[in-house]
Amino acid sequence: MPYKAISDIGEFGLISRLSKLVEPTLAEAPSLLKGIGDDCAVYRLSETLMQVATTDLLAEEVHFDLLFTPLRHLGSKCISVNVSDICAMNALPTYALVSLAIPPSFSVEMLEELYRGMSHAASGYGLAIAGGDTSSSRSGLVITISMTGETTKERLTMRSGAKPGDLICVTGSLGGAAAGLKMLMREKNIMLDHLSNNEPYSKSLMADLQEYSDAIRCQILPAARLDTIRFFHASGVTPSAMIDISDGISSDLGHLCRCSDTGALIHERAIPVNTQAREIADELQEDALAWALSGGEDYELLFTLPQEQAALAAGNRDISVIGKMTEKEKGILLSDIYGMTICLDDLGGYDHFRK
Question: Where are the alpha helices (DSSP H) in 88-212?
């Protein structure tokens, strides 16, 4: 029997198949309320207190490029992307464990710089870095962060609670991370072209990247939306479903809909596309909306609210209402500025194993 390539089923197809293999083990932990299938696993600590746990792996040349990523910024980003998962459960982070596979080219000072970024970010989010593990690597740097958080039973928010009629909301702006990556990759390729042709490469050849600083910051130094979670808690707002935008709206909204057994309709005119992403897209003759929909790595929050809670969030200028959840049979749709309807399932988002 021929073997099946992972690229034939993609990242989420692989997760689905592996989930079925480990499902029998869930019986060994009766207090585990949610395993694979959400931003975090959920464990009941008591009748009122819930622990959420997540882990993320970042591999050199897959998730980051050290040619244009300062190690301190990389350390901060590693913490932020995990805090973003904790936020997606309407929880607050508590502590993290850090594991590294370190290539021989790394010095002690380089690792200290990486940890300075981690420590600075952790302090800002109010969490502890409690331990981890180290190993050698025969290729590039690999970083794995595991993190826990806590929330109450009443505040716990998963992907599965949305209902038709709920408002679809998003924090911040979208597409900035993809735009920033485009500019960084452009400058990297210019540099490599000069070096491969034995031509000198100096700063005078480099574009003034300060002009694109906002988009570049979105890519290499994202911030988890812990401020939004604190706003929810202070205002008594509890989303019906929530996910962080790591792969793009087109993919992450699909996860919400499949878990909640609903459809969705969002409106192009309501999507908060990053201003600098629009400027960069015009310069490169690309589509900023496509970056907002499927570029990924924005680490904003995508959530749904029952109609009766809409007024509670209306006072937050950093929250945009972009559509409504619908009946499942209506599908997951985007209404563009011309009144045309596009199926978001056709756009997709980031997939590590896509061909």
Answer: 108-125, 176-196
Task: Tell me which amino acid residue 193 is.
Answer: D
CA end-to-end distance (rounded Å), the chain: 22
Question: Contact 91/40 with Cβ under 8 angstroms?
Answer: yes
Q: Which pLDDT tens digit goes with each residue over 86-124?
A: 999 999 999 999 999 999 999 999 999 999 999 999 999
For 79, residues 6+ apart whose C-beta sits below 8 A from its C-beta are 96, 117, 118, 121, 122, 125, 127, 145
How many CB atoms neighbour CB 277 within 10 A? 30
* Chain length of the chain: 355
pLDDT in tens, 260-318: 999 999 999 999 999 999 999 999 999 999 999 999 999 999 999 999 888 877 778 99
* CA–CA separation, 148 and 263 (whole Å): 31
From CA 103, how far away is CA 275, in angstroms rounded? 38
pTM here?
A: 0.92
Phi, psi (rounded to 5 degrees) for 297 = 65, 20
Tokens of 19: 């989930």
Is-contact 114 98, C-beta < 8 A?
A: no
Do the beta carbons of residue 125 and residue 226 sit within 8 Å? yes
> DSSP of 76-122, one letter per residue?
HHHHHHHHHHHHTTT-EEEEEEEEEEE-TT--HHHHHHHHHHHHHHH
Residues 6 or more apart in contact with residue 65 via CB below 8 angstroms: 184, 188
- Among candidate residues 265, 230, 17, the one with its CA nearest the CA of residue 124: 230
- Count of CA atoms in the C-beta half-sphere (13 A) of 75: 19
If pLDDT is split at 50, 70 and 90, which confidence band does 207 have? low
DSSP structural state of residue 206: S
